[in-house]
């Protein structure tokens, strides 16, 4: 995976070459990722990153996301939803929100990403998930209004509910409050903007 080849860009999002995934993180080169948020009129869904992950193990993250390879179009990123969550969805079913940039510097890497953000109106139940266990260990959701307030910094905790899944088919219910420490360190207000887009553009609700 670290040797996968991705496109490399300058800060104006003009392609300037290619590099391995390991190299872009080591040198802080700009590259593209695909984000797909599962949402419905009431909830936004998050994945729990596997404890085996090198970066941010066990933290809450975008429902499905991944790096776009040099040979892929942005729409090809939809494969991440199948790979990580086991959901078969088509590109015409997702709603394009747009592109945003994100920089996260941690002790392991400098991650400079152009993120292509999509949302998917999720109408299924918890049984529809078949998780890729080395990537994802569970799926949880939070109420849209509560999540918006939390990611705007108006509340200190967010109530989540969902399941941790195990390779033998068992699952354990999760119901608990979480703080920002349990989430990937996104760019400030990124998730709040996703929720506002979902409420206004997809479900005609005012924030």
Automatic annotation (TrEMBL):
Residues 29-168 form the Nudix hydrolase domain. CDD domains: NUDIX_Hydrolase (cd04692). Signal peptide: none annotated. It comes from the Bacteria. Coiled coil: none annotated. This is NUDIX domain-containing protein. It comes from Lysinibacillus xylanilyticus.
């Amino acid at each position: 995976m670290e040797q996968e080849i991705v496109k490399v860009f300058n800060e104006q999002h003009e392609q300037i070459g290619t590099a391995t995934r390991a190299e872009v993180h080591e040198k802080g080169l700009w590259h593209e990722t695909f984000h797909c948020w599962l949402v419905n009129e009431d909830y936004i869904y998050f994945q729990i990153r596997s404890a085996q992950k090198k970066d941010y193990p066990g933290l809450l993250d975008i429902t499905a996301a991944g790096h776009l390879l040099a040979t892929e179009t942005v729409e090809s990123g939809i494969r991440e939803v199948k790979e990580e969550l086991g959901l078969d969805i088509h590109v015409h079913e997702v709603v394009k929100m747009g592109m945003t940039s994100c920089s996260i510097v941690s002790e392991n890497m400098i991650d400079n990403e152009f993120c292509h953000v999509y949302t998917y109106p999720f109408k299924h139940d918890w049984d529809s998930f078949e998780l890729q266990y080395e990537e994802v260990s569970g799926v949880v959701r939070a109420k849209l209004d509560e999540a918006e307030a939390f990611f705007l910094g108006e509340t200190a905790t967010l109530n989540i509910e969902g399941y941790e899944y195990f390779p033998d088919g068992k699952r354990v219910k999760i119901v608990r409050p979480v703080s920002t420490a349990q989430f990937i360190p996104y760019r400030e207000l990124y998730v709040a903007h996703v929720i506002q887009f979902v409420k206004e553009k997809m479900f005609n609700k005012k924030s």
